[in-house]
Amino acid sequence: MLGSNKRKIILVCETCLSRNYSLTKSMMTQKDRLEIKKFCKTCNLHSLHKETR
Ligand SMILES: [Zn+2]
What we know:
Layout: E1 6-13, E2 19-26, E3 35-40, E4 45-52
Antiparallel strand pairs: 1-2, 1-4, 3-4
Bound molecules: zinc ion.
Zinc ion binds at residues 13, 15-16, 18, 40, 42-43, 47.
């Protein structure tokens, strides 16, 4: 079970629901749902991106 504490997640724009970013996060250190302000090229502005699977 190598790397079983890491999970691949996708960040979606809150505004237009575009799947703009993918990353892996450690379930050991980040138990909460991620919410990050990132640039969305669809909205053409910085918007809140939330974790999804
Ligand atoms: Zn957007």
